[in-house]
Design brief:
Blueprint: H1 2-38, H2 48-71, H3 79-114, H4 121-136, H5 147-174, E1 175-181, E2 185-193, H6 196-208, H7 214-230, E3 233-238, E4 245-253, H8 264-278, H9 291-315, H10 320-325, H11 328-341, H12 352-381, E5 387-390, E6 393-397, E7 400-404, E8 407-410, H13 411-429, H14 431-455, H15 457-462, H16 464-483, H17 491-523, H18 538-558, H19 564-587, H20 594-610, H21 620-624, H22 628-639, H23 642-649, H24 662-672, H25 677-685
Antiparallel strand pairs: 1-2, 2-4, 3-4, 5-8, 6-7
Helix pairs in contact: 1-2, 1-3, 2-3, 3-4, 4-5, 4-6, 5-6, 7-8, 7-9, 8-11, 9-12, 11-12, 12-13, 12-14, 13-14, 14-17, 16-17, 17-18, 17-19, 18-19, 19-22, 20-22, 23-25
Length: 687
C-alpha cells in the first residue's frame, strides 16, 4: 500500500507543474485574443474554436489532477506533506486563472457569434441574454478590475442599444401610429402590417428585452381611447380593403359640449371594435406572455378608471324606471369578459370593471336619492306668496289622536309635502331602496330647517305674514311626519327632526313677536305722563292710536293665516303688553288732574272700542288679555267719586280687589283727589 501511495504522489508531483504550464499557456493565448479585441482593438489570427477545444481538454486534465490530489494521504510529519500543500496551492491559483480566462473567452465567443448573418432578432437577443448572465456573474473579484472586462460591458451595452433601436425601427414600420391636428379636429391613423412572422419576431424579441411599449400605450390611451370615451368619433376599422395593412382610423372634434357626449353603449362598442382590430398586432409568445398584457400593465387601470369616471358614472340611470330598463350591469360585465378574452389583462386591475358593475345598483340608488334631494331643494327655493288653506282635521300619532288646526300654508310647502308623499310611496314599493329613501327624506327635512330660513331671512324677520306662514309650514311638515310615523323606519331620528321643525318655526315666529313687542314699546315712547303735565295732548293720543293701528295690521295678516288658538295667544300677548304698560304709567303718576283723568278715561274708551274687535269674538279679549279687566277697573277709578271707589272696594270684597292691591288703590285716590276728610275716610276704608 505504501508503494501505491508513493507512486500516486510521484505522479501528482510530475503532473501539477505540467498542468500549470498548460494553464499559463492557455491564459496567454486568451489574453492575446481579448487584448487584441477589447483593449488594442486590432485583428488577431487565433481562432476561438481552437482555443475553446484546447480549453476543454485542459479542463479535463485539471479536474483529474484536482481529484488525484484530493485523494492523496500523506503523513503530516513528513516532508511530502509540505510538498503536497504547495502543489495544491499552486493548482488552486492556476484553476482560478483558468476560470477567468474561460469566462473571458466564452463572452468573446458569444460576441463573435452575435453578428452572424444567419442570426435573426430573437437569436441576437438570446445571445445578448447569455452575455448579460456571464457579465453579471462575477465569481472572482479580479474580474471587474480588468480593463478588458469593462470593455466587454461597454460592448454589451452598445450591442443591446443597437438591437433595441433596430427593433423599435422595425416595430414602427410594422405598426404605424399617426396623429394629425387641424384647427377644430384631430385625426388618428393606425396601420398594422399583415406580416405575422416579421411582427412576431420583432415583438417577441422586444418583450424578451423587457421593452415596456410605453409610447404605444400612451398613444393609444391619450389619442384613441380617451376621445372615444368622451367624444363622438368617426371610426373606421378595416381589415379587408388593403391586403398589406389593417387600418384603424378615427377623427373627432377637439372640443365638444357635454350634451354631445356618446352614450356608454356606443363607447363600449367602439372600444371593442378597436381592440378587435388591434389584436392583429397582439403577438402571443406564451399563455403568460403577449403584447396586450404588456400594454395592459401600462394603461389598463387608467383606461378602466377613465371609462368609469367619464362615461359609465354619468350614464347610470337616475330614475327607477330607467334602472329597470337598463342593461348596464350586464353590458359592463360582458365588456370586461371581452377584454380578458383578448388577453388585455394585468392581473391587478382585471376585476375593476366587474366590481364597479356590481356596485351600479348602489350608485343608482345614491344617484336617485341625490336627485330626489336636489328636486326637493328646488321646490324649497321657489318664492311662493300664494297661500293654501289647510282644513282642521284629526289624525293618529302613535296611540294618541292629534288635531291639526285650520290655517294657511304656502303653496311651496304643499308641493313639498306632495313630493315627500311620492318619495315615501316609492320607498314602500322598493324594499332595496327603502332605507336610502327614508334617509333622504330625513335629509330633506333637515335641510328645510336650514336652507329656507337662510335664503328667506329678510322676509321672515321683517314681514309678519311671512314669519307666520313659515311657522305654519314647519308645523305642517311636523304634522306630516307624525301622520306617517308608522312608515318611517328610524323613529328616533324623525322624532328629533320633528322637534327641530317645530322649534325652527316657533323660533322664527317668536323673533317676529319680539320685533312687534319692540315696535309697541317704541310707539309708547310718545305716551309720556309727568308730574308737570296739565292735560293730555295729541302726542299721547297718537301713541295709543299707533299701537292700535299696529295691532290692526297684524290682525289683517295673521287672523286668516295662523291657527285660531295661536292667533289669539300671539295677539293677546302683544295687547296685554300694551295695556300693562299703559296701566303702569298711569299708576306711576303722583298727581292726576281732572283734565288728565278725563283724558286718560277717554283714551281707555278708545282702547275699549277698538281692541276687542281684533278678535272674531270681541268677548275673547276678557279671556286672553290678562290685564283687560284691570284696565276697565282703572277707568272706573278715573271716572269715579270717592264714594263710588269705596263701594267698588267694599271693604276688600268688591270687584276692585280682583286686580288692585290696597296700596295701588290708595295711591290712585291720593293722585286723583285733594286731601280732605272725605279722602282720608275713603283711604281708611281701603284695607
Amino acid at each position: 500500500m505504501e508503494n501505491i501511495a508513493q507512486t500516486q504522489f510521484e505522479n501528482v508531483s510530475f503532473n501539477v507543474p505540467e498542468v500549470l504550464s498548460l494553464i499559463r499557456k492557455h491564459q496567454e493565448e486568451v489574453r492575446d485574443v481579448v487584448t487584441a479585441n477589447y483593449v488594442d482593438f486590432v485583428a488577431n489570427n487565433a481562432t476561438n474554436s481552437t482555443l475553446i477545444d484546447s480549453g476543454k481538454e485542459l479542463e479535463t486534465q485539471i479536474k483529474e489532477l484536482v481529484a488525484a490530489t484530493s485523494q492523496l494521504t500523506v503523513d503530516k510529519s513528513s516532508g511530502a506533506w509540505n510538498d503536497l500543500r504547495h502543489y495544491q496551492r499552486d493548482l488552486e491559483e492556476g484553476v482560478r486563472g483558468y476560470k477567468i480566462a474561460r469566462k473571458l473567452l466564452s463572452i468573446h465567443d458569444l460576441f463573435e457569434s452575435i453578428n452572424l448573418k444567419s442570426n435573426g432578432y430573437e437569436k441576437k437577443a438570446h445571445i445578448l441574454g447569455k452575455i448579460k448572465v456571464l457579465l453579471d456573474e462575477v465569481e472572482d473579484p479580479v474580474l471587474p478590475e480588468l480593463h478588458c472586462f469593462q470593455s466587454m460591458i461597454l460592448r454589451y451595452e452598445t450591442e443591446y442599444e443597437t438591437l433595441t433601436n433596430d427593433l423599435n425601427v422595425e416595430f414602427t414600420n410594422l405598426v404605424v401610429l399617426q396623429q394629425r391636428s387641424f384647427q377644430n379636429t384631430k385625426s388618428i391613423t393606425i396601420r398594422i402590417r399583415k406580416d405575422e412572422d416579421k411582427l412576431y419576431q420583432v415583438v417577441a424579441t422586444l418583450m424578451k428585452t423587457q421593452h415596456d411599449f410605453e409610447s404605444v400605450s400612451q398613444f393609444l390611451l391619450e389619442n384613441v381611447f380617451a376621445p372615444v370615451i368622451v367624444k363622438p368619433v368617426a371610426l373606421i376599422c378595416d381589415e379587408q380593403s388593403d391586403e398589406h395593412n389593417v387600418l384603424i382610423q378615427l377623427s373627432y372634434q377637439q372640443s365638444v359640449t357635454e350634451e354631445l357626449r356618446p352614450g356608454y353603449k356606443t363607447v363600449l362598442s367602439n372600444i371593442m371594435q378597436i381592440f378587435y382590430n388591434l389584436s392583429n398586432m397582439n403577438i402571443v409568445v406564451s399563455d403568460e406572455e403577449c403584447l396586450f398584457k404588456v400594454i395592459a400593465k401600462q394603461m389598463k387601470k387608467d383606461l378602466c378608471e377613465m371609462l368609469i369616471e367619464r362615461c359609465l358614472e354619468r350614464d347610470i340611470p337616475d330614475t327607477i324606471e330607467g334602472m329597470k330598463e337598463s342593461t348596464m350591469v350586464k353590458d359592463v360585465c360582458e365588456f370586461n369578459t371581452f377584454l380578458l378574452t383578448t388577453k388585455f389583462a394585468d392581473d391587478r386591475n382585471d376585476q375593476l370593471l366587474e366590481v364597479y358593475a356590481n356596485s351600479i345598483e348602489t350608485i343608482h340608488q345614491k344617484k336617485l336619492c341625490d336627485n330626489v334631494l336636489e328636486s326637493a331643494l328646488d321646490i324649497m327655493k321657489r318664492e311662493s306668496h300664494e297661500m293654501v288653506l289647510i282644513e282642521e282635521h284629526e289624525y293618529q300619532f302613535g296611540t294618541s289622536t292629534m288635531r291639526f288646526s285650520s290655517c294657511m300654508v304656502t303653496r311651496t310647502v304643499v308641493e313639498l309635502k306632495k313630493f315627500l308623499d311620492k318619495v315615501l310611496t316609492e320607498a314602500d314599493a322598493h324594499g332595496k331602496s327603502a332605507e336610502r329613501f327614508v334617509k333622504t327624506i330625513a335629509t330633506i327635512l333637515e335641510r328645510y330647517t336650514v336652507d329656507v330660513p337662510m335664503s328667506n331671512e329678510k322676509l321672515l324677520f321683517k314681514i309678519p305674514q311671512q314669519s307666520a306662514l313659515f311657522r305654519n309650514d314647519c308645523m305642517y311638515l311636523n304634522y306630516w311626519l307624525q301622520k306617517n310615523d308608522n312608515k318611517l323606519k328610524d323613529h328616533c331620528l324623525f322624532t328629533n327632526i320633528a322637534d327641530a321643525l317645530k322649534a325652527c318655526g316657533e323660533d322664527i315666529f317668536q323673533h317676529q313677536l319680539n320685533n312687534q313687542r319692540t315696535q309697541t314699546m317704541q310707539a309708547l315712547n310718545g305716551f309720556k305722563l309727568s308730574i308737570n303735565l296739565v292735560e293730555l295732548g295729541t302726542e299721547q293720543q297718537r301713541a295709543i292710536r299707533q299701537c292700535i293701528r299696529q295691532f290692526e295690521l297684524l290682525k289683517n295678516v295673521w287672523q286668516t293665516v295662523l291657527p285660531d288658538p295661536v292667533y289669539k295667544q300671539s295677539l293677546a300677548g302683544l295687547i296685554d303688553l300694551f295695556v300693562r304698560e299703559i296701566i303702569k304709567r298711569i299708576q306711576s303718576l303722583e298727581d292726576i288732574t281732572t283734565a288728565i283723568g278725563n283724558g286718560l278715561a277717554l283714551l281707555i274708551d278708545t282702547m275699549k272700542e277698538t281692541l276687542p274687535n281684533l278678535f272674531k269674538d270681541p268677548n275673547d279679549v276678557h279671556q286672553h288679555v290678562k290685564q283687560w279687566t284691570k284696565l276697565l277697573q282703572l277707568q272706573q277709578i278715573l271716572n269715579g267719586s270717592l264714594v263710588e271707589i269705596t263701594e267698588l272696594w267694599a271693604e276688600g270684597k268688591g270687584p276692585l280687589t280682583m286686580c288692585f292691591s290696597t296700596e295701588e288703590v290708595k295711591h290712585l285716590i291720593r293722585a286723583l283727589f285733594q286731601n280732605t276728610k272725605q279722602r282720608q275716610a275713603c283711604i281708611a276704608s281701603i284695607v
